[in-house]
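User: Fold this, then the next.

Assistant: Folding the first:
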Amino acid sequence: MAKKEPPQEYIEVLEVLNVLYDEVDGCSFYDYIFPDNQKQGEQCGHYEKPNAVYLYTNEKDSGSRRRLRRRIMLSDTWKEDYINYVEQNPSTLCSGIAYRGRANNLENAQRMYALAIDLDGVGLYELKNLLLRFGQPAENIRTLPVPTFLVMSGTGFHVYYVFEEPIDLFPNIKLQMKSLKYDLTFRMWDYKSTSKKDKVQYQSIVQGFRMVGSINPKYDVEVKAFQIGGRVTLEYLNSYVKPQNRVDVNRRFAPSKMSREQAKESYPEWYQRVVVEKNKRQKKWDIKGKQGFALYNWWLNRAGEITGGHRYYYLMCLVIYACKCDVPKEKLKADMYEVFDKLKLIEHDNPLTEEDVESALEVYSKEYYNFKISDIEYLTDLHIERNKRNYQKQKDHLEEARAIRDIRMKRQNKDWREGNGRKSAEPIIVDFFRENPTASKAEVIRGTGLSKPTVYKYYEAAKEKAQLKPAEPIVAAGLDTEELRAVFSRCENLQRIGRVDRVNHRD
């Protein structure tokens, strides 16, 4: 079989990174992230020393139903294990999390050593914009904290922020870390600037990524890592996200201000279940019979709305709806394989495989049944209408809501109309011009998604404001702006005259 040629974008991006930064081999990469894994024989049932867990394929499993094997990353055997199980392996996964035990799931996630964000569709132009945004002041538009590593996975990046001190993942901290990651992902994933993909792909904090030194079999290229910066603090990452999405390690839980006696009176069912019966598991949604299956079937029928980068998470959320609605696992699995045949036809860089179906099935019966609607929307990019009318007719519901609003405003001596007018679209166009100063009206319409009349209305004024207040020069990690531009200029010249050398990768 003829050897695959790596994508041209991979070659060009690798050329630039080799000039700018030092490459880090896979064994050293994980030593850096997880410096305190236990040694062989030290493992015990205590939770004070969790370990990294990675997944890999084994040739012995070829032809069997077994997909991936799990292995704990132990410090004294890691070098040998890396050579045997990771290096040049076509399917390996690892997150930046240490777990208790062998199960690398959210429930067992105990300590975060690195926050990793996936960014697809990165070529030379997108890489330049990405590097120019790293390290600019957090208050500026779309700027980004300097990462520790950029990992080339094929035609995209895994962006790693390795913490100076690992973050203990108490239940409420997991929720906060999720919000912080979603915020940074949105900030990083900028269509036509840092990514060729127009749909942001959000992922769990425990999402595993292809391991450095392994092979991406689609392109037959090695996953390579480059060190961009040093370790980061949580305070540093917090400064780049909205205040409501920041992580407060002192806010491990959100304790109620209600006394136990008050809770007993107000929530007798909860009191009986949690306090008396000592059943602390979350209560499952009360969805029964035809009503439950209707909800499940509603989600099953939305498969046709899914776009390429969200297929796996659609399947995972189908499993979650099955858990919510008590759908038998046998029926769920049959439905998943039926819808799989449709989803795999959706065009995307990465093919959907049966392994994805089996992976999604792993969340069945694992207390994901109370997964929030907002999280389902993030992961699948599908909007879900909320029923906020308490089963009333719309007319009656609106009448009641307006009456409550008027009473509240009267008490506060305010007018509800104040500050609630439609916001001007001009700042959006100004921001677009700062990154695309020569954009035509048609380009502004395509780039912002605003309507033609809106863009025409603000076009000239926004263009003038963008020129009056240009963005400040951005200094990439450890590099002078002019030096960075010179490197890209050199690579772009090589492209034009066809002298970009093919990058050799291991057989």
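Now the next one, as you asked:
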Amino acid sequence: MNTFVQSASSSQLERRDRYVARGVSNQNPVVIVRAEGARMWDESGRAYIDFAGGIGVMNVGHNHPEVVAAVKAQAEKLFHTCVHVALNEPYLALAEALCRIAPLSGPKKALLLNSGAEAVENAIKIARSFTGRPAIIAFEGGFHGRTMLGMSLTSKVDPYKVGYGPFVPEVYRMPFPNPYRNPFGPGDLTEQALGFLRHAFETYVDPNQVAAVIVEPVQGEGGFVVPPADFLPKLRDLCRQHGILLVVDEVQTGFGRTGRMFATEYAAGLEPDMVVMAKSMGGGLPISAVVGRADVMDAPKPGGLGGTYGGNPLACAAALKVIEIMERDGLPQRALEIGERSMAFLRGLQERHAMIGDVRGLGAMVAIELVKDRETKEPYPEAVARVSKKCLEYGLITVKAGVYNNVIRLLSPLVISDDELQQGLEILAQAIRETETER
């Protein structure tokens, strides 16, 4: 059972314990009733700076007035048709917009869905349909959702996979080139990772039976692990050699978070076959997409893709406005500024606190990894729990990550002001100081 503190009233705790399934975790035990920009307020009126963004969902900020207006306007006209029954304009407009901004060239098509996991599932379905092959390759440290296939692709046992097997067959997991926790030892990380994959084609799975490789350009739940710059392009080349599709999971990295509209854009000429999108795409409403090569996307026959709520008109209206705001207001560029400020501050903090083992990130996708000893790099999840609790007490919402739950990730809305960012970083620093002193 979660231990609630701060502003959550006893009546709210009772409701939570009585009616909400135990498996629904809660890191910050407060009840939020209002939010705006990069701030949230609980039921007692206390304000919090948001460094979590609903786990990367609120890149344009909470309750952006233009997104609210777009949803209101759409709600007055049409809530739902189900695209399988009758087309609606927001679905068509968003599909067109996503094909325009997706980081791949040539003819493209889109499929609209409701969640990141649902988009991942459908990308794999499309890959298998197009190639006629069954096998999928994923990476250690990767996270692709909580559905049965999502769990099968995900590389974290507790809590995501404990007690839920057996999992989907023909999923093969490879080491990820993690610069901080190098799984190979001395040498070129990219070459070692791809060498392991080539070896796997001889010992684990016939490459002619592999439909797709799915990879996050920056691992999200895995702890904001940024691979070497040459990894994705060389992975792309290896996939092409064997007729394997490359699926890039941009659920958390997409829509401006890393300093580009999509993190894939950092690798010039990468040309994935499909890109999976969700989270900040809808400004807080549930919507996701798979965008890919037209010939690949057209492989499933009519009726093989979709769902009742996929591409709901309200969520589409929100997503269209999000894209407009992102491009007009230069939010990806703002992500670079946030990232530079955050990384500089945290690296300075790292020099003063031994339990900060690593500071890393790309754009405004920034994280610190806490360890008990810098030499052994033994994970320190207990410290993350204490730091997060102190941050909450001082008015900062944080969220953890990492295979060992020892990473604090920063996912503030990209509209956060410099003052709010600095205040949040100073709260984080105070929580780390106190935690290390108590240690």
